[in-house]
Amino acid sequence: MPLFDGLGSGGEKTAIVIDLGAAYTKCGFAGETGPRFIIPSEIRKPGQQQAIKVVQYNINTEELYVILKEFIHLLYFRHLLVNPRDRRVVIIESILCPSHFRETLTKVFFKQFEVPSVVFAPSHLMAVMTLGINSALVMDCGHTETLVLPIYECTPILPAWEALPLGGKAIHKELEGLLVEQCTVDTDTTTGQSVPVAIGSISEETVEDIKVRTCFVSDLQRGLKIQEAKFNLDGTAERPAHPPDVDYPLDGEKILHVKGSIRDSLMEILFEQDNEEKSVATLILDALVKCPIDTRKVLSENLVVIGGTAMLPGFLHRLLAEIRLLVEKPKYSTALASKSLRIHAPPAKPNCTAWLGVSLRSGEDPSSTYEESLLHREVECAVTLIMYSPLLYVIEQFNYLQFDISTQTALTF
Questions:
Q1: Which pLDDT tens digit goes with each residue over 135-182?
Q2: Which of 65, 96, 284, 307 registers the highest number of CB atoms within 10 A of its CB?
Q3: How far apart are the first and last CA of the chain?
Q4: 16-129+352-376 has which CATH code?
Q5: Matching CATH topology for 133-166+277-347 and 168-269?
């Protein structure tokens, strides 16, 4: 709990900031430099070995309500340890979040926990707030998908969004298949056993740990050679020398031999172009081409990459190299006059950048003239804010910052 909580701003307590991701949830208090807790977005019920994912869009509303209720209860009373009735809530969401999920989550907060108000903030816009700029092309490399959205003068350019189902989930699926097919396991009694025979299946937590500890993104030249050797049917293309194999311990009794060829080639699925010539790198250029022509220069010079997948070693370097290679193709060179492409380094790790943006904005001190004027400058543009209140349900298009007193003020969320 924040020190001296409630002594400033008329005794009002700081808001709770929650980033409900598909894999992990970040939660903490507004005005702080980082989330207090990062926990898996799942719940476990007695008698069930497999955890239940919280972020599900294809289940009925009643079942979703029960899952969200149990998970939010876990956040408040096991981690944050605060009274829900005392604090407003800010939820970081994706622009592709279905309305029924948002409405069910809002119902849980108001009906079950009786919070004063709930605000939903788009993750891409909040990431820009950490840099002190108004315009950027934001790529969110998450667990289930990679989503690109241009932000111009604090306004999302919605017709220009691009997305692909490539993220941590796709990497885990590919890695699990490679481990089962190519790797072996040593035990106390035998060596060289296949994975299905030795351990049956590999848990998702183990797959993720192997990815984080052993795998990396190759540079552009090496990656292109790996792709060429992979798709060369006659076998004439030579693959670069692979890195050393890694022995990964399992349960303290078994050792999984992770081949070096898996370590450097796994992440190529993010950059391999599919039948429609799409990859995570082309998403940025395709989004730029969809933007108004007078916004492309400033957007191309302000690229922001967030999300847990962006934390992979070598990812940002490879992404920028891929973009600079693709921009020379006729498809993009004629539409993009500026070839200057730069990636910002936000003041937080990629997986917490959006959370920090909300924390900074909702934790502003209205008594500070400079901070207040800066915040007004950022929101004095047409930005759709979605606010929920027990007495008022509002979805409005704001040209200037104006709130009714019953909805509280935007300066403190």
A1: 999 999 999 999 999 999 999 999 999 999 999 999 999 999 999 999
A2: 284
A3: 18
A4: 3.30.420.40
A5: no
